[in-house]
Specification:
By secondary structure, the protein is an alpha/beta fold. It contains 11 helices and 11 strands. It has a 7-stranded parallel β-sheet, sandwiched between helices. The chain has a two-stranded parallel ribbon with strand order 6-11. A two-stranded parallel ribbon has the order 8-9. Helix 1 crosses helix 8. It comes from Cladophialophora chaetospira. Keywords: Oxidoreductase.
Length: 334
Amino acid sequence: MKVLLTGGSGFIASHCIDVFLQRGHSVVFTVRSAAKGQTALRNYSESSQSKLSYVIVEDIAEPTAFDEAVKSDPPFDVVVHTASPFRLNISDPKELLSPAIIGTTGILKAIKKSAPSVRRVIVTSSFVAMLSPTKHPRRYDGATWNPISPEEAAQNPGNAYRASKTFAERAAWDFMEHEHPNFDLVTINPPVVFGPVAACLNSLNDINTSNARIRNMLRGDFKNGLPGSLGVYLWADVRDVALAHVKAAEVQQAGDKRFLLAANEYMSNADVAGIIVENFPELADKLPAKLESDLPADVYAFDNSESKEILEIEYRTLKDSVVDTVKSLIRAGA
């Protein structure tokens, strides 16, 4: 397949590129500048670079941002849209909402208009587009939606982020329902995402938000007490998330589905810290002496069966994911 992948310098995206290349596909990824594109390319061998290139999309919030990027010779078969903003230090929720929504609808419109060869679009959504933090359903699965309203989205940056993912994904499914394009749609909805940091990481300050909690544990930031898990007790390893994106492109039965991409076991910050202490005893003094899980006894259920049955994902354990994450962070200078 020939794949267009947006947000190519991102954490999940970089792992997706690795898996696409390993499985023999060619990838064109989008970046905001030539400098970012060249930095990403340098992390691949010459043989891999023969199947890898980039195009520049400076601002995904522009409605026509992807109009040229979707054009290719030979044409694209699949588009994977991972690009979306995630910043909590914002003054206006629109700083998150507009780029996420316009970026998603903009690329769908561009594909319908100028890339008739594309048969499938895969959008990286999030478990927060399913999460109902004030009143959890009995079970989360691919049919569950976050009920957040525009008024709630404006209340604080956390709500704005959750709304950006929810509204962007709803906009994608609404587009499919009303526009009837030649391609079908798949969304991948991971919760907390751990796993080895990307090879092209410029700074430990640039790591993804989920891994940042492990980085902070290694730095001793939580020595006097771990933060709460904020109601999200589901997680996945980035390598499993990346494979899910690639399998979603390869497996015909994945079309028109929404996948909760969550590992088989729950986690809390105390569980993560306990794995660090057990496997890296030299780091024990960076963490509280007493670790108490905030995982509730009546924690909500979840159903990840479609990801295992259709995408054939065999999830890594929390121990394996955390150990590999810590090793990668240490190599990166943590």
